[in-house]
Fold this protein.
Amino acid sequence: MEWARWKPIYLDILADFGYDARADVESAMVLAKLVENRRMMNFRTIVDNFGSRVSICGAAASLEHELSRMSSDDTLISAGSATGRMMRQGIMPDIIVSDLDGDVQYEIEASSKGTLTFVHAHGNNIESIERYVPMLKGPVIPTVQCQPFGIVYNFGGFTDGDRAYMIARHFGVENIRMIGWDFDRAFPKEDSDPFIKKKKLMWAKKLINDF
């Protein structure tokens, strides 16, 4: 995602939610510092991890019922809190896209077994980044929603789900299957504002449709 293309969308998101861009930058800098000594995957290796067809698993109420739709040939991508629900069904994701806001212990476990994790920094998760990123022992790709710099990347996307979609597209995947997605009804999460969640789902739907 070119920053020039993402920037106006990002500014619209900030305005819609009243978020502070400076907090996003601060979080991005914290993440960059934590991963600066890690060995990063090169582009070709990441492409190989995705393959040609993926199933992106979201956190809708229907996820467990829909998991049977996945093909054994698909690369399995879990978005945020879908990770724990997949693993409780005995399914290990190949790739995780997360802002460390769900059942992080499952993401830590998956990472320890080699799952590639795209970790996202934003203004509301600095504490989680500081606490959990050092626990991720597998390969990590750091992502941000502000202007990228150094070793942190902006592939586009606002929520874990639409960001997973845009990351897959960035790395050349055209055959994308969506599992456990519902843009109209958010899966209830403790301490989550349902109004804000609904707005986030509206943005996720818009971004996927637009890209």
Summary: The chain has one domain: 3-210. The longest helix spans residues 194-210. Residues 3-210 form one domain. The mean pLDDT is 94.
